[in-house]
Design a protein that fits this description.
heterodimer; A: Butyryl-Coa Dehydrogenase, subunit A, domain 1; Butyryl-CoA Dehydrogenase, subunit A, domain 2; Butyryl-CoA Dehydrogenase, subunit A, domain 3; four-stranded antiparallel beta sheet; B: alpha+beta; four-stranded mixed beta sheet
Chain lengths: 379, 418
């Protein structure tokens, strides 16, 4: 055994294919428009990505997907992150799929996952509420049992891709007790159900995050993914596996920002010379390397550990902490180098700025993951 | 991808048995390894020198260098075994400060004549000569090309250079060394970078004066942060040259090639960092995670006093997490470099990070351990003064280039603005 950080041949092809797709079908002008829409995608793009198997990349072949590893998914999402390509690719193809795989019964897997892989169903997780927490105690939206199933009441806030989704996976509380991790159930809710309303949250940096109101939404018993009251373990497991793939998307963003800033340092002339000759500018670009490489290798180590069934908890929290801060800071540094033109809404630095802020807290802000690390280190 | 640390092959493990058997027979008795390199006695230093002579005669002091010049002529696989087994016993190869050899041997191989290789290298590679690198001067620190120590041809005995000047912050445990790798100014008229000469010369020439400096730093942090501090320099010196006569046979390269030779030495340093996949100065065989960070994290988990302190002061857990994250980043940069994914900047960037992280690391440790990190007391000091030595070592940022110079190097490697 030896350290080998090379991509496999298939991973290299996947990476190249995704980068070619972005260049050809989603250049900067397209991304700018997509970021302004409620769904983040067009039917044409969605169909193309479904055709390439990207929407079912981690779904096992028996459920209509291509059955790739999480590392392969990371490679794909790193490439998509260079755009950064908006849209529910992660929400549905990664996190949503993982939730069904981890929590769903065989019938649910067979009925949902093939449609996800083909792009006919789009999933998104609705977990956080106004109190905003990724811990079990933050899940308070009520799901009361009745003779036909359950009735859901409450608000989910800062939900990703809710407008694009055909189905929401709603984490709700079906029982209260001393342990907040018990009594959580996962419900697969048709977004067009009566009582479901979705509103895009305003704010340039909020990007595609939504308020979802559930007002006496009736769902049948069959909508429960997995066990009633026992949804938290599968929810946590799914989120843990999804996190490094999200981190890879941020790595792609950091890489794109580094590349464009380095190039700009060579072409922007001020005081008679490229601005990259000034040490203050050099310092900012060199600082980017620390963020970028730390994010990259912590992410891929976490993916490797998950794919090889090694204990990965510390690596996952580490990767999320590092990559969230990295994407945030690299955006700051890039915009400082680009200065005025970096403020423009049609400049790619601004696309990444929106993505870096929107994704900073998603699946747990750095302070949450640092807290988890602290508990693991002290255990 | 595979992040697994490399494992030795069966053949390597068999060779390791042979190495261990030899070490059992030949390690001098009574060797000790104080945490603080400033506490290594002269007697202990002589034991290290004796070990170097013994292992040099075996060809294992510099195992991968050419056999015909006194090295072992071994491949990387066998060299790695020897280094690992020696490291397990608390030593490095060589077992003392050897910057002069680390740079001097490769540049002699690259620029020296065959006669020079046959005469100058065996004392280092086989006989364990202590070799100091003498580049830094009072006016030539980061600006290494600004040499003021002159080596000018004698007007009558033209095959001799007469050397006058001062070198500072050079050397290591202990003086006097045997050989100098000496950078000088050889031409007072020529333009900068075309006016320097490099010598690999005896250190015991008349007119050489060696004065120890009284510094608080025990050596570069990379040297003091490992399981042993043998990589640390310990003591630094000022070396004065007063009309010292050096024969031209010790001149490496041409009379005005000193800058080219010095830069080649720096290239060797970068390549060594990249090849080893570890920050420069990190002790071979050390834990994959920074040793000081690792010991601190273990204490936070297992030392009842510290566990209690962390429970009663939960805000301090943030410092523990900062140490963990920083040490993991350092480890991942090593892996990146070992996997040859550091591009043009990998080794240099890892060195930069390690130096800057060392300051943060010891600061965060001090927040949790308080004044325990400041004492080397036998009763109250922790881990054989590991943290006390680390506090001083973290400030030793200048060797092998300050962080600021390192950033300039990275900028050039990346062609920022070019």
């Amino acid at each position: 055994m030896a350290i080998d950080l090379n991509l496999s041949e298939s991973e290299e092809m996947l990476r190249k294919g995704a980068l070619d797709f972005l260049r050809r079908d989603a250049p900067n002008k397209v991304i700018q428009v997509l970021q302004g829409t409620d769904t983040g995608y067009t039917e044409d793009l969605w169909r193309k990505t479904a055709g390439m198997g990207w929407l079912g990349i981690i779904i096992p072949e028996q459920y209509g997907g291509t059955g790739n590893s999480l590392t392969s998914a990371g490679v794909l999402f790193e490439a998509l992150g260079t755009g950064p390509l908006p849209g529910p690719y992660f929400s549905s193809g990664i996190l949503g799929s993982l939730l069904v795989l981890e929590a769903g019964n065989e019938k649910q897997k067979k009925s949902v996952l093939p449609d996800v892989a083909e792009g006919k169903k789009i999933l998104t997780l609705a977990l956080t509420e106004p109190e905003y927490s990724w811990e079990p105690r933050g899940i308070q939206l009520s799901a009361e049992k009745n003779k036909d199933g359950f009735v859901l009441n409450g608000i989910k806030l800062f939900v990703m891709d809710a407008q694009a989704a055909t189905h929401l996976i709603v984490a709700a509380r079906t029982a209260k007790g001393t342990d907040p991790a018990k009594g959580i159930s996962l419900f697969l809710v048709d977004r067009k159900s009566e009582g479901v309303s979705v509103r895009r949250l305003p704010g340039f940096l909020a990007d595609s995050t939504f308020e979802v109101k559930l007002d006496s939404v009736k769902v049948p018993r069959s909508a429960v993914l997995g066990d009633i009251d026992g949804g938290w373990p599968a929810l946590k497991q799914s989120i843990d596996k999804a996190i490094p793939v999200l981190c890879a998307y941020k790595v792609g963003g950091c890489q794109a920002l580094f590349d464009m800033t380095l190039q700009y340092s060579r072409t922007r002339i001020q005081f008679g010379m490229p601005i990259g000759r000034f040490q203050r500018v050099q310092d900012m670009i060199i600082e980017m390397i620390d963020h970028l490489d730390a994010a990259r290798w912590s992410t891929y180590e976490a993916l490797w550990k998950l794919d090889t069934q090694r204990p990965a908890a510390e690596s996952i929290h580490l990767a999320k902490t590092i990559s969230s801060e990295a994407y945030w800071e690299v955006c700051n540094l890039a915009i400082r180098v680009f200065s005025g033109i970096g403020y423009s809404v049609d400049h790619p630095a601004s696309f990444h700025l929106r993505a870096s802020r929107r994704l900073y807290s998603y699946l747990g802000e750095p302070s949450y993951h640092r807290q988890q690390l602290g508990q693991l280190l002290m255990a | 991808m595979d992040f697994s640390p490399p494992e030795f092959t069966k053949e390597q493990e068999e060779f390791a048995k042979e190495v261990n058997a030899w070490l059992d027979e030949n390690m001098p008795e009574g060797m000790t390894f104080p945490r603080d390199p400033l506490k290594v006695s002269h007697e202990q230093f002589e034991k290290r020198r004796e070990f170097a002579r013994r292992i040099g005669r075996k060809g294992w002091l510099y195992p991968s260098h050419p056999r015909k010049y006194g090295g072992g002529g071994l491949d990387a696989a066998h060299s790695a075994v020897i280094m690992r087994e020696v490291a397990k016993r608390g030593l490095g190869l060589p077992p003392f400060h050897a910057a002069g050899a680390a740079y001097g041997v490769p540049v002699t191989l690259a620029f020296g004549t065959e006669e020079q290789k046959r005469s100058l290298l065996p004392p280092i590679l086989r006989d364990g000569a202590v070799t100091w690198e003498l580049f830094t001067e009072p006016e030539a620190g980061s600006d290494e090309a600004n040499q003021q120590t002159n080596a000018l041809r004698h007007t009558r005995d033209k095959d001799y250079f007469i050397v006058n000047g001062t070198k500072i912050f050079v050397g290591g445990l202990y003086s006097p060394p045997d050989i100098f790798l000496l950078l000088t100014r050889s031409d007072l008229e020529a333009p900068r970078h075309e006016n320097l000469a490099m010598f690999l010369a005896p250190a015991n020439l008349p007119g050489v004066e060696i004065i120890p400096l009284d510094l608080f730093v025990p050596g570069p942090f990379g040297g003091v942060s490992g399981q042993s501090t043998v990589g640390a320099d310990g003591i630094k010196y000022q070396v004065n040259f007063d009309d010292v006569r050096i024969h031209e046979s010790y001149l490496i390269g041409g009379e005005r090639d000193g800058w080219k030779v010095a830069n080649a030495a720096l290239e060797v340093e970068h390549a060594v960092r990249q090849d080893r996949g570890e920050p420069r100065g990190a002790f071979v065989g050390a834990s994959p995670r920074n040793f000081i960070a690792q010991r601190f994290l273990e204490r936070c988990k297992n030392d009842p006093n510290i566990v209690k302190r962390l429970k009663e002061n939960p805000q301090l857990v943030d410092s523990v997490v900062n140490v963990y994250i920083g040490a993991e980043k350092e480890r991942l940069y090593s892996i990146r470099n070992a996997g040859r994914k550091g591009g043009v900047y990998g080794g240099t960037q890892a060195q930069l990070y390690s130096k800057v992280f060392a300051l943060t690391l010891l600061h965060e440790i001090a927040k949790v351990l308080g004044p325990y990190t400041l004492t080397s007391d036998d009763e109250w000091g922790l881990d054989d003064s590991l943290f006390e030595v680390g506090q001083r070592g973290a400030l030793c940022l200048a060797p092998m280039g300050t962080p600021e110079i390192t950033k300039i190097v990275i900028a050039r490697l990346l062609s920022i603005g070019r």
